[in-house]
Design goal:
Blueprint lengths: L7 E2 L3 E10 L2 E8 L4 E8 L8 H17 L10 E7 L2 E7 L4 E2 H5 L6 H19 L13 E3 L5 E3 L4 H13 L11 H4 L6 H17 L9 H10 L12 H7 L10 H13 L36 H7 L25 H11 L2 E4 L2 E4 L7 H7 L15 E2 L2 E6 L4 E6 L4 E6 L8 E7 L4 E7 L6 H8 L9 E9 L2 E12 L2 E11 L5 E9 L3 H16 L1 E2 H5 L1
Antiparallel strand pairs: 1-2, 2-3, 3-4, 4-6, 5-6, 7-8, 8-9, 10-11, 12-13, 13-14, 14-22, 15-16, 16-17, 17-21, 18-19, 19-20, 20-21
Helix pairs in contact: 1-4, 3-6, 3-9, 3-11, 6-8, 9-11
Length: about 550
C-alpha cells in the first residue's frame, strides 16, 4: 500500500500519506496540484473481482451516491470536493479535517454532558441535511465524528456507508461497520432509514457520557441479541441528556423523537439552559427476530470503547432506573434568551423531510406555537401588526416567496413544512420551501449553481434515489419561454413503489429552479400528488422577471 505514495489520481491529486484505513477503504492525505491545497482522498474497497457484475454494479452505485452526497450542505458535514474514477473505482475527494476523532477522545475517558450535547447538536444538524436530500448515513459512530480546530465538529462518510454496507453484505456476507452502533430494525432485516441514524446517534451520546457502548458484548451473537431485545442500563453520568438518550434508543423507530425535539434538548444542555420538563411514557422491549441481513456476518470492526461487561467490573452497578421520560410535552416556561448562532442552526433542523428507505416522514414544527414556527423560519415574532394572510383564489393559496424570487400556489389549507436557506457562502447554495403532509410533499428550490447543460442537471437531479430499479422519463420542454425539463421517476425500495415528479427551469437571467412533488406509487395519494404538481406548475412564477 505504501507503494501508492506519490501516485497521481485523476490527473491532479497526488497521494502523500496514508492516514487511515478500515473495512470500507483507505483514506489518504493528498495534494491537489490544480488549486494548491491539501485534501483527503478515500480509496474504496469493493467486493468481488473487478470483472464481476456485482463489483461493477457496486462501483456504479457508489459513484452515483457519492455525487449525491456532495449535495449534503451543512457545516458539520464533511465537504466532498470531487469524485474521480481511477482503475474502475470511484475515489472520493474530501476536505481534510485536521484534528482527532471522537473515538480517539473517548479512549482518554468520557465527556461531560454539555460537551457531548455540543457534539450531538452538530451531528444531528448534519444528519438532517443528509436526510433532506435522501442520504441515510448508516454508520454514525465516534470514529466517524471528527473534532477539528475552533470547536468544529464534522460527521464523515455521508452516502458512502449506505452503498458500501449494502453491496459488501450482498456479495460476501461481510458487514462493514461497528455492530453495536447499528439500529435494531437493520438487524431484523427491515433496512435502514433516517430513524436508524437517530438510534445510532443515541448510542453515540450514551458512549460519550458513560465511556462505554451500551450494547457491546463479548461475541457477535450476544451483541446482536442485546440490540434486538435488551434495554440499555439507565445512563448514570448523562445528567439532563438521560431522557433524550433513552428515547433515542427505543426499539420501535416510531417512538424515537423527531429532529426538532432532539435539537432543542441538545441545544439546551450545551448552552446550560433549563431543559424542557417531560413526562413518562413506558415502552415494551422488542422481541428478538430473525436477522437475514446478518446471516453471514463475519467480524465486527473494533471500537476503542470498552464493552459493558468490562465497564461493570470497574464501576458499581447502576442505581434503580427512574421512569422513562418522553419528549412529547416540552415546557417552555424557563428558557433563557438564546445566542443567534445556535438559534439559527436549530431553525434549520426544526422542519425536516426525511427519505427513510423509501418512506417519507414529515416533521412538524415543535409545539405548534406560532412564535416558535416564525422563529424557525427566521421571521419576526407574530404580532397584531403582522402582515395579512396570503390571498386564496379558486381554492389555491398564493405564497410570495421573496427569498426565492418566486410565487408558489398550493391548495388552501396546505401547511408549511420547512423553509431552508443554505447560505451564499456554502457549497451548492440554495433556498427551499416545502409544503405538504406526511405522504405528499411539494418542494420549490432555487439553486445558485447547477450542472450545465440542462441534461447534466437532469441527470444529477435524480441521483438521490437512482438505483437499478429506478425508471425516469425525461422530456425537454419550456416554461413561459424559458428552457425547462420534465422528469417523472418511479423507483422501488423493499417492494414499495414511489414516484417523483420534477420540473427544472433555467431562466434567461441564469436563475435555476426545481419544482418537485414526492408521493407513493399506486395509491390514492399518487393521484393527489400528480394533481398538486400540475396545479402548482400551472400557477408558478419564478425569477425577477416574472415574480418581481
Amino acid at each position: 500500500m505504501t507503494t501508492d505514495v506519490g501516485r497521481l489520481i485523476g490527473g491532479r491529486y497526488r497521494l502523500t500519506e496514508r492516514i487511515g484505513s478500515g473495512g470500507m477503504g483507505t483514506v489518504w492525505r493528498a495534494w491537489d496540484e490544480l488549486v494548491g491545497r491539501e485534501v483527503a482522498v478515500k480509496q474504496p474497497r469493493l467486493p468481488g473481482d473487478p470483472v464481476d457484475d456485482v463489483h461493477q454494479r457496486a462501483a456504479n452505485r457508489l459513484y452515483r451516491e457519492a455525487r449525491a452526497a456532495a449535495r449534503v450542505d451543512h457545516p458539520a458535514a464533511v465537504a466532498i470536493h470531487d469524485v474521480v474514477v481511477e482503475g474502475g473505482l470511484p475515489w472520493i475527494v474530501m476536505e481534510l479535517i485536521r484534528g482527532e476523532s471522537l473515538d480517539d477522545v473517548l479512549r482518554r475517558g468520557p465527556l461531560k454532558p454539555a460537551d457531548t450535547a455540543r457534539i450531538g447538536f452538530a451531528v444531528v444538524g448534519a444528519l438532517h441535511a443528509a436526510h433532506s436530500v435522501g442520504i441515510v448515513h448508516r454508520d454514525v459512530k465516534p470514529a466517524n465524528v471528527l473534532l477539528g480546530p475552533h470547536g468544529r465538529v464534522v460527521l464523515t462518510d455521508f452516502g458512502i456507508a449506505y452503498i458500501q454496507g449494502e453491496e459488501s453484505l450482498t456479495a460476501s456476507g461481510e458487514f462493514v461497520g461497528s455492530l453495536e452502533f447499528i439500529a435494531p430494525e437493520r438487524m431484523a432485516g427491515h433496512g435502514a432509514g433516517a430513524a436508524s441514524d437517530l438510534w445510532s446517534l443515541g448510542v453515540l451520546l450514551y458512549a460519550a457520557v458513560e465511556g462505554w457502548s451500551p450494547f457491546r458484548r463479548t461475541t457477535v451473537e450476544s451483541t446482536l441479541a442485546a440490540i434486538l431485545s435488551d434495554e440499555p442500563p439507565q445512563p448514570r453520568q448523562a445528567g439532563d441528556l438521560a431522557p433524550l438518550i433513552t428515547q433515542l434508543l427505543a426499539k420501535d423507530p416510531g417512538q424515537r423523537p423527531d429532529v426538532a425535539k432532539i435539537a432543542a434538548v441538545l441545544e439546551a444542555v450545551a448552552e446550560g439552559w433549563t431543559v424542557p420538563v417531560v413526562t413518562g411514557t413506558p415502552r415494551e422491549p422488542q422481541r428478538p427476530s430473525a436477522s437475514p441481513e446478518f446471516a453471514g456476518y463475519t467480524e465486527t470492526v473494533r471500537s476503542g470503547l470498552p464493552s459493558p461487561d468490562t465497564a461493570r467490573t470497574e464501576t458499581a452497578g447502576p442505581p434503580p432506573a427512574p421512569p422513562v421520560p418522553s419528549l412529547t410535552e416540552p415546557d417552555h416556561r424557563s428558557v433563557r434568551r438564546r445566542r443567534p448562532s445556535l438559534r439559527l442552526l436549530a431553525a434549520c433542523v426544526a422542519g425536516a423531510v426525511l427519505l427513510t428507505g423509501g418512506i417519507w416522514l414529515g416533521v412538524s414544527f415543535r409545539g405548534g406555537d406560532p412564535r416558535a414556527e416564525a422563529q424557525s423560519r427566521g421571521d419576526a415574532t407574530p404580532s397584531a401588526s403582522a402582515s395579512p394572510s396570503p390571498p386564496t383564489v379558486n381554492g389555491w393559496t398564493i405564497h410570495t416567496e421573496r427569498a426565492l424570487n418566486a410565487i408558489l400556489s398550493v391548495p388552501a389549507g396546505t401547511p408549511l413544512v420547512d423553509r431552508n436557506d443554505s447560505g451564499a457562502d456554502r457549497r451548492n447554495p440554495s433556498r427551499t420551501v416545502i409544503y405538504g403532509d406526511k405522504t405528499v410533499q411539494l418542494r420549490l428550490t432555487r439553486e445558485e449553481a447547477v450542472p450545465t447543460p440542462m441534461n447534466a442537471w437532469a441527470d444529477e437531479a435524480t441521483l438521490a434515489y437512482a438505483d437499478d430499479f429506478a425508471k425516469t422519463l425525461s422530456e425537454p420542454t419550456t416554461f413561459h419561454g424559458y428552457e425547462a425539463r420534465l422528469l417523472d421517476t418511479e423507483y422501488e425500495v423493499k417492494e414499495e413503489k414511489y414516484r417523483v415528479m420534477q420540473l427544472l427551469i433555467a431562466t434567461d437571467a441564469k436563475e435555476y429552479y426545481e419544482l418537485r412533488v414526492d408521493m407513493p406509487k399506486g395509491t390514492k395519494d399518487e393521484k393527489r400528488g400528480a394533481s398538486l404538481f400540475e396545479g402548482a406548475r400551472d400557477r408558478l412564477k419564478v425569477g425577477k422577471a416574472m415574480a418581481g
